[in-house]
Structure prediction request, 229 residues.
Amino acid sequence: MVRSASKSDPSRDNIARAYSSPPWWYDIRGLFILTFAYRSTLGRQVRLFGRNIGAHHLEVAIGSGSLLDIILRWRRWKGLPQVRIVGFDYAKPMLVGARQRFADRRGMTLLHADVSSLAFADASFDSANIANAMHCFPDLDGALTEVVRVLKPGGTLAANVLLYPRGPWLLRRIAGRINQWGMRKGILYTPYHHADIRDKLITSGLVMVAEEVCGNAYNVVLRKLPEPV
Prediction:
C-alpha cells in the first residue's frame, strides 16, 4: 500500500514555520538543547543511531542533516558498510540544508514529506531512526503507525524521546524553561512521561530491544514483529 502526502494541517504548518531558521542556527540551537534540555551527549546519540542503520534505511525528520552526517562519518571510521538512505523532513528550509550537505553523496534520497502520511509502500525499509524529533510530532500515534507500516518485518526503529525534566532542582528548572520556550516557539510539541511514551511505543506494534533513560532523554531500539505464518 502506498499513501499520498497529507493535506496542509495548521499544527504541522506551525512546526514547519518554527523550523524556518537557517540550518547553521538550527545546529547551534540543537546543541544547546541537547546539553541543557535533553541532558545527553552527542556521542551517545551517534552510537545509538549509528548502530541502527540497515541496508535500506529511513531517516525520519532529517533536519539539516548535521547529526546524520556525523553518524555516517562515525560509521566509516568504524568500518561499517555503506547503505541506501531515504531521508525526509516537513520543514523545507531544513531540507534545503540537508540537500546541500549531502549533494555529493551517492545512495541518498531526500524528500519533503509528512511523517503521518508517508508515500512509501508497506515493508520498504530495514531500519528507521527518529532522532530528536518524536516529541515534536503533533500526531505521534499517526507517525508511529506510518513508520511501523513502512518497516520490513524484523526491521528496527531507534528513537530518543524528550522526557519531562528530572534530577536536581536547578537542572530541572533550566530544562523546564527551555521546554517552555520550545513549545511557545513551536519546535517542541510536548515532552513525555517515561511510562506513557514506553506504553505508546510498545502498543504501536513493536517489541523492545534496548532502552535507557539518560538525563531527560529516553533512548530506545525496537523491532517490528515478523508476519505470522
